[in-house]
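Lecture 7 notes: from sequence to structure.
We start with the chain below.
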Amino acid sequence: MHFLIVDDDEASRMVLMAHLKHYGICDICGNGALAVEAVAKSLNSGRPYDVIFMDIVMPGPDGHETLEKIHALEKQAGIAPENRAKAIMVTSMDDEDNTMTALFEDGVSAYLIKPVAKTELVTKLAALGIVEL
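Predicted structure tokens for the same chain:
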């Protein structure tokens, strides 16, 4: 499994990485621009990401804008929407409008509220068929 964690908060990145290290390889980015570059490199190398954890609120391109750019790269690479990386939005806000936008307009598979508990993370990944409980 190949994961990308995108968050401007280092502590949040480290928590997710610690939770995910037993399930696969984790790459991390501190902003949306770096995430777009990482996805482009992964697509060019033939090792696309399976799951992208995306913070919603970040300086520069936010999670919505970044995900839109990532989907454009996947489309350009000939990846059908049903085969693109699963996107999981991660937010410290209990903001239903932002979350619903991410789920419906951005094609997000799930969302998690920070701080992310390992049990909640694994339950979400299992529900998406990514890991087994």
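Points to note: The first strand starts at residue 2 and ends at 6. Strands lie at 2-6, 25-29, 51-55, 86-91, 110-113.
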